[in-house]
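Protocol step 4 of 6: structure prediction from sequence.
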Amino acid sequence: MESTEQNPPQWNHTTLMDFILLGFSDVPDLRGFLFGVFLIIYMIILMGNSLIIIITKVNPSLQTPMYFFLGNFSSLEICYVSVTVPRLLTDLCRKNRNISFLACATQMYFFLVFGATECFILTAMAYDRYVAICNPLLYPLIMNNRLCIQLAASCWITGIPVHIGFTYLIFSLPFCRSNQLNHFFCDIPPVLKLACGDTFMIEMLVYTVAVLVVTVPFMLILGSYGKIISTILKLPSAAGRTKAFSTCSSHLIIVALFFGSGIMTYLRPKSSHSTGMDKFLSLLYTIVTPMFNPIIYCLRNKDVMVALKKFLSKWIVL
């Protein structure tokens, strides 16, 4: 008798040289409109965050730990969006949307490093507000120049070695399916969809890193603001409570947008992922949140608005 045993399906292990970023190719009639919208948002991000960096450097009244971290945060936002948006704008203008294997890995690496740095800097900013409001008498002693520099340096450096290894592991997987990446940049979920074989260990590593880099900082921020709100409610002055809430609410809006969309992207079960939802969430944490940063921190912060008016009036006079 002939054996009826069927051989397991064999993957076609073809070495991929590049990916094709599909991006928004499913809505060709909107590509011109999307290009205009994303270009305007990108310019707002660049100009708004650049202004924050300048005024926090040149204005003596903003030489405080809070604005030191805000300046770092604005610098980071420029780096963060520049990893994905210029490529997105270019792809909206051309038919050839190929991205080399190395370029895709490089984009993912820098995106992950800057994303982790943002999580850490937002946590440092929350700690700064916690000390300022809950321990105001010790604030100048605790948040001294040396500690601020150490915190900022740690935020920028910590994610570098972790994501070198992480990116290397992802791109060491065999890619033997289609080379069409249904996203507008090289993010983890769409890249893993193209990998063949068992990706369980990598997926567990993604969850572990996401918990350490996203969830833990988010919980620390919530804990800090729980203490802050409790302290604010005990302030005898209504004006003091209003000022404290105003200072902290802008930070909380950024935190809610960034961490909320990040957690939904990287900690959702694989079965619940959909291409449309993944793109929408990615737009939130790659483009929308960085756009709101300069708007929220300027319009909702009287000190920044005063410093900005002084700075702009000098340039207009000149």
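Step 5 (inspection) to follow. The chain has a mean pLDDT of 86.
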